[in-house]
Amino acid sequence: MAKLNKVLVVGGGIGGMSAAITLARCGAQVDLIDLDPGWRVYGAGITITSATLRAFKALGILDEVLADAYTGDGIQVCDRSGQRLGIVPTPAAEAGVPGCGGIMRPLLHGILSRRTIEARVRVRLGLTVDKLASDAEGVEVLFSDGDEARYDVVIGADGVFSRVRELLFPAAPRPQYTGQSVWRIVAHRPPQIDRRHFFLGGPVKVGLTPVSATQMYLFLLETTPRRPVLHEPQLSQELARLLEGYGGPLANILDQRVPGTSVVLRPLEGFLLPRPWHLGRTLLIGDAAHPTTPQLASGAGMAVEDGLVLGEELQRAQTVEEGLEGFMARRYERCRLVVENSLEIGRREQCRAPIEEQTQLVEQSLRVLAEPI
Question: Which residues, including other chains, have CB under 8 Å from residue 335's CB and lie 6 or more apart?
Answer without folding.
Answer: 272, 289, 290, 302, 306
